[in-house]
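Pasting as-is:
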Amino acid sequence: MVTYFAIPKADFKIAVLGASGVGKTALVKSFFRQQFAEQHIPTVDDYFIHTVLMNGHMLSLCIVDTSGTYSFPAMRRLAVSYCDAFIVVYSIDDPSSFTKAIEYLDEIHRLKKTQLEEKAIPVCFAANKLDLGDEERRITGQQGQDEINNRTDLNGEYLEISARLGFRTQRAFFGILKQMMTSKDQKRLAKRTRKRIQKKVKMFCWNKASENDVNC
């Protein structure tokens, strides 16, 4: 189980939320290009630290894979409070998972609105299992799009994906990262990158000076 105080600091933190069995862990594994697991194993909140390259900046990314069971509502609320952005997942063949996803959207708004003040909350509303046939589909694309459109305080994107096929799973994560990359973030990361380069140059000069016993 996640202990959020033990998670290393990261530039951006994304929580993946949804009912049990909708494919949250499969989505995360697809992002890391791991093999899809046919058997569903319920998740007790877990997290992954990853580094990605965006706009010329190396970003540290923490992805929190939350439990979809009712046994851990406190952990889910803690994940929402801890994270900066959210991927809310439901299954297109499961109306109850759609209802639960809507509840999560409202919970995100309730818990994050005061924390983020005037800033819109970055959210990807992901309809999973697009690989199923049309006859198995129970939730239309318009229903999903309407839910995210009706929540103006969410900086949201509706996206239909297949974690099984790896379809649009990369876009789900990189799309929300782009939402999070404000101009302020870009300046902060550029400043940090310059400092890192300057530090490396100083270390290189120091090593060369030590080798050659000359000033750099």
